[in-house]
Write a structure and sequence with these properties.
- With about 160 residues, the protein is α+β, with helices and mostly antiparallel strands.
- Helices cover about 30% and strands about 25% of the residues.
- The protein is built from four helices and eight strands, in the order ααββββββββαα.
- It has helices spanning about 15-20, 30-35, 120-125, 130-150, and strands spanning about 40-45, 50, 60-65, 70-75, 75-85, 90, 105, 110-115.
- The chain has a four-stranded antiparallel sheet.
- It is globular and about 50 Å long.
Length: about 160
């Protein structure tokens, strides 16, 4: 191919998983690589608590493999809020502030999560405003969508 060098490079399976997430879908392959270098890989065993209700929120989690369950403690016992699988993310408000988590997240199966810490996100916003803008816009759209669903009375996953 004469102009093969102009073709976008193929993404690794990991970068493709990031690209498939609504949070990172607008990023170019190079931008995905920059973000991937900031993500911390964490593995959790089935039934292991990822974070507990009331803990300070410090990071957003993207599910690379496995499933998690999100629940809240109620007077009548634990209430399941959501079950999430690969490509979903949770804990998104932690990128914006350090408010306490309002739910517990536990691994349903063995999980691999990509963790995006608030400090790394804030540093990215200072060093690469375009990537920071794209992620912030995706995050705002996600939170706005949740708010619209709540306002229309639809059941929703609360921000944790």
């Amino acid at each position: 191919m004469l102009f093969g060098f102009l073709k976008s490079p193929e993404l690794s399976p990991r970068l493709q998983r990031l690209k498939d997430s609504a949070l990172f879908s607008s990023l170019t392959p190079l931008e995905l690589k920059i973000v991937d270098d900031l993500l911390h890989e964490r593995r959790y065993l089935a039934d292991e608590i990822i974070f507990d209700e009331g803990e300070e929120g410090q990071a957003l989690y993207l599910i690379m493999s496995g499933r998690v369950i999100i629940s809240r403690l109620r007077p009548q016992g634990r209430e399941v809020v959501a079950e999430m699988g690969p490509g979903a993310f949770f804990g998104d408000l932690a990128l914006l502030d350090n408010s306490p988590r309002n739910a517990q997240t536990r691994a349903l199966d063995n999980c691999e999560l990509a963790v995006f810490f608030r400090a790394d996100f804030m540093g990215l916003m200072e060093t690469d405003a375009v990537i920071g803008y794209k992620i912030s816009l995706a995050l705002a759209r996600h939170i706005g969508s949740r708010l619209r669903e709540w306002m229309s009375g639809k059941p929703q996953i609360e921000a944790i």
